[in-house]
Sequence to fold (95 residues):
Amino acid sequence: MAVKPLEDRVLVKPIEKDSVTESGLYLPESSKEKPIQGKVVATGPGKVLENGTRAAMSIKKGDTVVYSQYAGTEVEIEGKDHLILRESELLGVLA
Fold:
């Protein structure tokens, strides 16, 4: 199933942190924090401006982005967790 975000929305697949520390200790699920980084899977065409033109998206498919911990809407696509965020909810793009 393909999901195409609308307007200035972005579909992101969160990047999970390792459940093992550098020293080899396993972390329980309850101590894990929600991911704040993810890979852009798809982008919308951009927001429609007041003059009728579309603003170009500043990110593209494949970018690794940073977002706030509770941003966006969680959705499950083909058994995998994803987030749908507005472009304005993204904090940055990792180079």
Notes: Residues 9-16+33-94 form a domain with the 10 Kd Chaperonin, Protein Cpn10; Chain O fold (CATH 2.30.33.40). The beta strands are 9-14, 37-43, 64-67, 73-77, 80-86, 90-94. The two ends are 29 Å apart (CA to CA). The CA atoms of residues 48 and 54 lie 4 Å apart.
